[in-house]
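[Meeting: bench + compute handoff]

Bench side (C.D.) handed over the final construct sequence. Compute side (W.E.) agreed to return the predicted structure before the next meeting so the bench team could plan truncations. Sequence as handed over:
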Amino acid sequence: MWKVELVSQAKKAFKELPQNTAKTLRLLLEDLEMNGYQRHNWPNFSKLKDSIYHCHLEKGRPTYVACWRVFKNEKLIEVYYAGTHEKAPY
């Protein structure tokens, strides 16, 4: 099991997501906790940089994404962004 945390920006954004997207993010958080940071079963999953990953939560206009960083030594996954693709920090 991995520990999964939402940083403050992601917590705030979570409250503002459309209901279906928020539900999808909850499912992603559960999947990350149970199965780790490499989630090839999620749409557009990719490694962005060393220990930084992302995937799409909802396609369309706008497209919603989640980004997370991994601290392997601590078995910690830190979700630092959840929101539209246009504003994603990558």
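W.E. noted at the follow-up: The radius of gyration is 12 Å. C.D. will use this when planning the next construct.
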